[in-house]
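Encode chain A's predicted structure.
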Amino acid sequence: MIKKFFAVAFMSVAILMSGCSDSEHVHNSPSTAQASPVAKNIPNFTAKTITGATVTNEIFASKKITMVNIWGTFCPPCIGEMPELGEMARSMPADAQIIGLVCDASENSTQIQRAQQITQEAGANFVNIVPDAQLMQFMEGVEAVPTTIFVNSKGEVVGKAIIGADVEGYKDELEKLLKQ
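Encoded structure for chain A:
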């Protein structure tokens, strides 16, 4: 438990030091699309959502493309885009979905309550996952939040990662990947 706490604390400090607020400056920049900062495949995991439900990597199997928004409860651009992400989730095509990965939350942390509050106030009712050890390791390459990646039904990271709050960029990348 202590080891997990320090891992989450280290990740949070690393993300904070990398400049969450800096992502505001790249909001609509074409340079926000980059090669994925994470591994090529989602690892096998068993984690909890912010509402306490158990979720595994099988969450990807039923959709052609899943948009994974890696965000933090400390990050103003992440919080700011939540209403648009909620709206986007409600209008997703049948073969796509959005899930959130709350990078600064851990089991029994106050960030879970904060994430619940943020998503509820924003109407962002899509699944938001509290990362387990495997997902924490998966996110090690993430230098800033929000970072959004795209995952196919096999759990493979596809397309370009988008660093910074860029909902239009997410929509464009999702549309492109769904056409492939």
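The helical segments are 2-18, 76-90, 110-122, 133-138, 167-179.
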